[in-house]
Design goal:
It is a single chain. This protein has 393 residues and is α/β, with parallel strands linked by helices. The protein is 38% helix and 21% strand. The chain folds into two domains: 145 residues, Nucleotidyltransferase, domain 5, CATH 3.30.420.40; 186 residues, Nucleotidyltransferase, domain 5. The chain has an eight-stranded mixed beta sheet with strand order 5-4-3-2-1-6-8-7, with helices on both faces. Strand 9 and strand 10 form a beta hairpin. The chain is globular and about 60 Å long. The structure holds adenosine monophosphate. Adenosine monophosphate binds next to helix 10 and helix 12. Pathway: Metabolic intermediate biosynthesis; acetyl-CoA biosynthesis; acetyl-CoA from acetate: step 1/2. Keywords: ATP-binding, Cytoplasm, Kinase, Magnesium, Metal-binding, Nucleotide-binding, Transferase.
Length: 393
C-alpha cells in the first residue's frame, strides 16, 4: 500500500489529508489549530464518518506531527509509519528558483529557509514541518509544492514593477503571486469540463476565500495574477487591503503616530479588507446578514475589485473563454458570484440564476447562450499536492 500525506502548515495550524495513491482516495484528514497557544484543537476525520477530537496544549509543529502519527496508528488508519511513502508540503514562497514542485534534499531545504524573507510567517513553519517528517519518517519522500510555481510562467512585462530595474536584478523585487496550486487545479478542471485542450483556452480563475486572488491563465499558463511580491496585493480580502497607493503609508503613520512600518503593514494585513471597511467581520456571511450600510458597502467594494481584475485580464489575454469561481466565497456565495458577473453583460457573460443557486458543486453556472462560460469548481489543493508527490516518486 502506498499512502501520501499532503500537509499545509501555517504559522499556528497544520491541515493535512492522507491519500491512498495512485487512486487519490482520501482515507483520513484533519487539522491541528492554535499550535503554540493554550487549548490547541486536534481533529481527525477518518473511516465512515468517524471523528477524533482532542483539546490540549500543543506547543510546536513537532509535537503536532508526533501526535498525528501516533493517533493514526492508534485509530488503525495506518498499520505502520512505513505505509506513508510520500509527504507533500505546501510551501508559500518558492521565489524565482522553484518553477515546479521539487523533491526536498538539503539544498532545496536551505533555499526554502532562505526564502523566508519573502514569507516570514509561512516558510519557517513549513521548513520546520519538513524537518520533523524527515526525522520521523526517514524512508518517506518529501516534496515541496510551491504557491508561487504556477505563476513563474508570467512574462516579465507582467511581473515587473515600474521601479528601478536594479531592484529586480539585485533584490528580486517583483510580483510572485500566490494560490498557484489552486489556480492550476481549477484551470485544469475547467478545461476538462469544457472538453477542450487547455492549450486552446483563455481562463480567468477567481480564488475567493479569506485570501483572494485572480489569475489570467492563457493556454494553461499563468500570465498575470493579482497578488504581488506578497499576498497583500490585489483585490479586497477578508482582512487584507489589497492594492493601495503606497504614499498612504507614511501619511497614515504620521496621523496614527506609528514609527515602525511593520505596524502599518500589520494594519493592512490584519485590520483592513472586509473587516476594516465594515467594522463587523472578515466573513462574507456576517456581512450578508447585516443591515449596516457599511457591510453592504464592503460587499459592493469586494465585488467591484474582483470585477475590475477580471476586466483587466480579458484585456491581458485579448479575450476569455471561461471564468472560474473557487474557494470559500467562490464556492459558496451565489449572491457574490452574481454580483461580480452582473456587470459583465457587455462581453456576453451571463449567470443563470437557477444553476447559480448551488454550493460547493462543480458545474456550469452561466446561461446556455453566455459567450463566456462561468464555472463553479471546488478547489482541491491537497489532491494536487498528492499528485505532484506521486509524479516525483
Ligand atoms: P477559505 O479561505 O477558502 O476557507 O474561505 C473562507 C471564507 O469563505 C470565509 O471567510 C467566508 O467569507 C466565506 N464563506 C464560507 N462559506 C460561505 C457561505 N456559505 N456564504 C458566503 N461566504 C462563505
Amino acid at each position: 500500500m502506498s499512502k501520501t500525506i499532503a500537509i499545509n502548515a501555517g504559522s499556528s495550524s497544520l491541515k493535512w489529508q492522507l491519500f491512498e495513491m495512485p487512486q487519490e482516495e482520501v482515507i483520513a484528514s484533519g487539522i491541528v489549530e492554535r499550535i503554540g497557544l493554550n487549548d490547541s484543537i486536534f481533529t481527525i476525520k477518518y473511516g465512515e464518518g468517524q471523528k477524533y477530537n482532542e483539546v490540549l496544549d500543543i506547543n510546536d509543529h513537532e509535537f503536532a506531527i508526533n501526535m498525528l502519527l501516533a493517533k493514526m496508528t492508534e485509530l488503525n488508519i495506518i498499520a505502520s509509519f512505513e505505509e506513508i511513502t510520500g509527504a507533500g508540503h505546501r510551501v508559500v514562497a518558492g521565489g524565482e528558483h522553484f518553477k515546479e514542485s521539487a523533491l526536498i534534499d538539503d539544498a532545496a531545504l536551505k533555499l526554502i529557509d532562505d526564502l523566508a524573507e519573502f514569507a516570514p510567517l509561512h516558510n519557517p513553519a513549513e521548513a520546520a514541518v519538513i524537518r520533523v517528517i524527515q526525522k520521523l519518517l526517514p524512508n518517506t519522500i518529501n516534496v515541496a509544492v510551491f504557491d508561487t510555481s504556477f505563476h513563474t510562467t508570467m512574462p516579465e512585462v507582467n511581473y515587473l514593477y515600474s521601479i528601478p530595474m536594479e531592484y529586480y536584478e539585485k533584490y528580486q523585487a517583483r510580483k510572485y503571486g500566490a494560490h498557484g496550486t489552486s489556480h492550476r487545479y481549477v484551470s485544469e478542471q475547467a478545461a476538462e469540463m469544457l472538453g477542450k485542450p487547455i492549450e486552446e483556452l483563455k481562463i480567468i480563475t477567481c480564488h475567493l476565500g479569506n485570501g483572494a486572488s485572480i489569475t489570467a491563465v492563457d493556454g494553461g499558463k499563468s500570465v498575470d495574477t493579482s497578488m504581488g511580491f506578497t499576498p497583500l496585493a490585489g483585490v479586497t480580502m477578508g482582512t487584507r487591503s489589497g492594492d493601495i497607493d503606497p504614499s498612504l503609508l507614511p501619511y497614515l503613520m504620521g496621523k496614527l503616530g506609528l514609527t515602525d512600518i511593520k505596524d502599518m503593514i500589520d494594519i493592512l494585513n490584519q485590520k483592513s479588507g472586509l473587516t476594516g471597511l465594515s467594522g463587523i467581520s472578515s466573513d462574507m456571511r456576517d456581512l450578508e446578514h447585516s443591515d449596516k450600510p457599511e457591510a453592504q458597502l464592503a460587499l459592493q467594494i469586494f465585488a467591484d475589485r474582483v470585477r475590475k481584475y477580471i476586466g483587466s485580464y480579458v484585456t491581458v489575454m485579448n479575450g476569455v473563454d471561461a471564468i472560474v469561481f473557487t474557494a470559500g466565497i467562490g464556492e459558496n456565495d451565489a449572491n457574490m458570484r452574481k454580483s461580480i458577473i452582473n456587470g459583465m453583460t457587455w462581453f456576453g457573460c451571463e449567470i443563470d440564476d437557477e444553476k447559480n443557486n448551488v454550493r460547493g458543486e462543480q458545474r456550469v453556472i452561466s446561461t446556455e447562450d453566455s459567450k463566456v462560460k462561468v464555472l463553479l469548481i471546488p478547489t482541491d489543493e491537497e489532491v494536487m499536492i498528492a499528485r505532484d508527490v506521486e509524479a516525483l516518486k
